[in-house]
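hey so u asked for the seq, here:
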Amino acid sequence: MPFTDPQKDLLIAVALTEFSVHYDQANPELAKHAWQLAASRLVDHDIEPAEAVDALEMG
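ran it, structure tokens below
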């Protein structure tokens, strides 16, 4: 089953959030930029970061 555009945006936001968490110590500037990109995608869909995975309705 293909993802819808909103699901793709949320999946990207989750991946960017994970990236920002895991690379915060190695490259804080890059991690901050990844978090900002993730946050902007979540704002577009009026979803809080903690709700993003549930909003994907996967699993």
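DSSP finds three helices and no strands in the chain. The radius of gyration is 12 Å.
lmk if thats what u needed
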